[in-house]
């Protein structure tokens, strides 16, 4: 149940890796706190929000051991997290300010006067902001951009999809907010009472991070359980095995007979030449020497009218063979999990790459994962493309490293192996 995962979020605060992360972050924030100016503010907010969003994202991936976010550039890893974090939480005050400006005609400078918000209607607006802010933070931890965070329709749709579990999240975060405020005031009092430089200030910062870390873990559980509803991967990614370690027994049949379905004509075609990848970097691996679908090339000389594809995969295969990528994606989206299980790996890879090109990252990742760990050379290409998506879109460099090292371990002689080594070097891994 979701409530048990909330309980687990509180237990995670006692893990050694979590405590170490709290010590490191509190030291960083305390030291930056002695500085002044715009740069110090960017370093402070960027460091704080970069780690909070990292915690939401990593706990949403189901990781038990906390690491540290990768630092590649000031804009991507400090400025952008600070902007996303501030906007996601400042939204609490945006609702009453918009109402005061649009409905009451309040002047711009009066918007910053607390006396403006004495009417009860503003408390309702603040309550709307408090409901909005946690889901905005969850969205900020994914690849959703600034405009997506500020899109009320999108955020409230996410809240509706999560349903009653979100109410439990709100109650938990409200309790953590009260605890955070209480610890903050206690920390200020302790800092004034103990005339020792640095230590009281650091200790107050360290203790104050406790509720923040737990809140990030709680929001991460929203991603872990309901990520597929928030356009973050497919539903299968978030399922926990009911019987861990138990695997199917028996032998897989050599060839499954397709279910009866209307016959669809398929034009034999060599698909590698049809698919342009997202960019040249994805093409670092050379094109395979064999056609993507050898089974469709065996009788290329047979007239079109004599070649048919049957079963639920028939229309998708027909669209791909006829280079109608739009129709192929439209058909595949109707039931991606089932079709990915029935289609040949080459077709699944083609669809995954097309989805990546169309910027449908979550579905692309879920599709490519279906074939990334099979015993087939095509898995090397899927692993490489997954690494690119995690690097370029999701900025999850740890996940990219995992896929690249899996590629090198399983397919050291593949043409993608050289590109994987180069990519690891560029990412700073050895």
Explain what this protein looks like in three dimensions.
With 430 residues, the protein is mainly alpha-helical. It has helices at residues 2-11, 16-33, 38-60, 74-102, 120-141, 146-149, 152-162, 164-193, 199-226, 314-321, 325-334, 336-342, 345-357, 361-369, 378-392, 397-410, 415-427, and strands at residues 264-265, 308-309. Strands 1-2 form a two-stranded antiparallel sheet. It is globular. The two termini are 40 Å apart. The model is unreliable at 234-240 and 255-308 (pLDDT under 50).
Write the layout of secondary structure elements.
Blueprint: H1 2-11, H2 16-33, H3 38-60, H4 74-102, H5 120-141, H6 146-149, H7 152-162, H8 164-193, H9 199-226, E1 264-265, E2 308-309, H10 314-321, H11 325-334, H12 336-342, H13 345-357, H14 361-369, H15 378-392, H16 397-410, H17 415-427
Antiparallel strand pairs: 1-2
Helix pairs in contact: 1-9, 2-3, 2-9, 3-4, 3-5, 3-9, 4-5, 5-7, 5-9, 8-9, 10-11, 13-14, 13-15, 14-15, 15-16, 16-17
